[in-house]
């Protein structure tokens, strides 16, 4: 069988600025010109996306490394084929303006994407640095897509803090709804966070198509980096924010984008080490079996 004629589902766990390369590539015809018919499908949580791959619904997509690793240990039939544009942890914990420090979070409600998503791991490490425990000292509230599609969960006072991504960070700052409390990357050494994966079945049957998808992704990253203005206009329209807010959102981390999708193996090893420190049981892994750079 070949996926040339079928629509390819590109599975993603969330709707935020990390999606910009694939949205841009779609909009600017970078997949079309390679005869790739691709659709981005949102699953709102890493474990939820892993499930879609296990069931054969998705063969390629973008995922945070912690849920990928958990899936992989449980027999997830896929490999990492590239790094997403956001390799380091450019992910932010924000809180109501009256919360000034991590220790102020004691007794508060913190919004996360889902139980087992990246931020459910990150919050434990951030709290632990200040001597707090996630399940004892704070309430973790899985919010699903609500956390990054609008700011209602803050405005309606459903949560006091949460992991918010761009462009919602810039929007929330602009509207004075919250302030940045911590950048996740400051708590972690060199790290490989966002990964692009493909199923083993797909790698065996259609490597040429996968290569074309990766080429389009790289082309998008490079075009956005070289000339951000068209991407800012597209992002503002896609995420329904003012262009000046999206510009702030994009430029906050654009300098640290990975443009060539090259996987940082040392970053993967660090990420595994971090999981072990968090008490996650991880068997001995041969990283070279997990990775197939495309």
Task: Outline the secondary-structure elements.
Elements: E1 8-12, H1 20-27, E2 38-42, H2 46-54, E3 60-64, H3 65-73, E4 78-83, E5 92-95, E6 109-112, H4 118-129, H5 134-137, E7 139-142, H6 146-149, H7 152-155, E8 161-164, H8 168-174, E9 179-183, E10 194-199, H9 200-205, H10 207-226, H11 228-239, H12 243-253, H13 265-277, H14 287-290
Parallel strand pairs: 1-2, 1-3, 6-7, 6-8
Antiparallel strand pairs: 3-10, 4-10, 5-8, 5-9
Helix pairs in contact: 1-10, 8-12, 10-11, 11-12
What's the gist of this structure?
The protein is an alpha/beta fold and 294 residues long.
For the structure shown, list the relevant keywords.
five-stranded mixed beta sheet, 10 strands, single chain, 16% strand, alpha/beta, 294 residues
Plain-language structure description:
The structure is a single chain. Strand 1, helix 1 and strand 2 form a beta-alpha-beta unit. The protein is built from 14 helices and ten strands. With 294 residues, the chain is α/β, with parallel strands linked by helices. Helix 8 packs across helix 12 and helix 11 (228-239) crosses helix 12 (243-253). The longest helix is centred in the last third of the chain and has 20 residues, at 207-226.
């Amino acid at each position: 069988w070949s996926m040339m004629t079928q629509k390819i589902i590109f599975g993603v766990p969330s709707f935020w600025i990390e999606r910009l390369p694939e949205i841009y590539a779609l909009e600017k015809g970078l997949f079309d010109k390679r005869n790739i018919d691709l659709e981005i499908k949102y699953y709102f949580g890493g474990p939820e996306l892993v499930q879609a791959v296990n069931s054969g619904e998705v063969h390629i997509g973008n995922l945070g490394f912690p849920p990928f690793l958990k899936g992989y240990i449980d027999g997830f039939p896929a490999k990492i084929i590239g790094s997403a544009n956001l390799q380091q942890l450019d992910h932010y914990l924000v809180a109501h303006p009256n919360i000034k420090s991590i220790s102020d979070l004691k007794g508060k409600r913190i919004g996360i994407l889902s139980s087992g998503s990246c931020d459910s791991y990150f919050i434990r490490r951030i709290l632990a640095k200040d001597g707090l425990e996630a399940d004892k000292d704070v309430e973790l509230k899985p919010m699903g897509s609500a956390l990054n599609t609008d700011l209602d969960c803050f405005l309606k006072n459903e949560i006091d803090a949460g992991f918010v991504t761009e462009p919602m960070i810039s929007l929330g700052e602009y509207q004075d709804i919250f302030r940045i409390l911590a950048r996740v990357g400051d708590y972690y050494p060199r790290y490989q966070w966002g990964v692009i994966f493909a199923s083993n079945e797909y790698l065996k049957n259609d490597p040429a198509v996968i290569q074309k998808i990766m080429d389009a992704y790289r082309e998008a990253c490079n075009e956005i980096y070289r000339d951000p203005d068209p991407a800012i206009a597209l992002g503002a329209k896609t995420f329904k924010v003012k262009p000046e807010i999206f510009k702030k959102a994009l430029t906050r981390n654009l300098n640290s984008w990975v443009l060539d999708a090259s996987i940082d193996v040392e970053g993967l090893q660090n990420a595994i080490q971090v999981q072990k420190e968090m008490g996650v049981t991880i068997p001995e892994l041969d990283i070279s079996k997990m990775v197939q750079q495309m």
